[in-house]
Q: What sequence folds into this?
């Protein structure tokens, strides 16, 4: 198993950051040549700019996968968290969900990673539980 994060948060120019992220993602897809890609569905964000950026990156991934005939599946955040048994719903804050994921990855996979990376690992683990 391999995991990691693509972090261009220090690049302040949005166009350059988007270009760098898009190229990095497609480079990884080229390297690993998957037959299926799972991505988390975009969720309503407090910041409309963030939602727009995430949706655009999702579009890059979807377009690349379509062009390369790679199956693409979108999984809702509530779905993958449910598959891992997370407590969610009314009164559960985003930070609580992130903490649950961090703890799940630590307890079940004996890994300690960043918040974003453990969520990606959680999505992968949840997808495997479906089969």
A:
């Amino acid at each position: 198993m391999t995991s990691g994060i693509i972090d261009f948060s220090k690049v302040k120019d949005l166009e350059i950051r988007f270009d760098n992220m898009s190229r990095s993602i497609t480079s990884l897809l080229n390297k690993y040549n998957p037959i299926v890609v799972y991505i988390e569905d975009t969720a309503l964000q407090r910041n409309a700019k963030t939602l727009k950026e995430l949706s655009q990156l999702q579009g890059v991934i979807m377009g690349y996968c379509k062009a390369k005939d790679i199956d693409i599946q979108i999984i809702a955040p509530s779905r993958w968290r449910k598959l891992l048994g997370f407590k969610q719903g009314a009164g559960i804050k985003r930070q609580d969900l992130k903490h649950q994921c961090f703890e799940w990855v630590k307890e079940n996979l004996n890994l300690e990673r960043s918040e974003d990376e453990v969520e990606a690992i959680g999505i992968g683990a949840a997808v495997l539980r479906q089969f």
Residues 3 and 49 are 27 Å apart (CA to CA). Helices lie at 14-32, 48-67, 77-83, 94-109, 115-129. The chain has a mean pLDDT of 92. The beta strands are 36-40, 71-75.
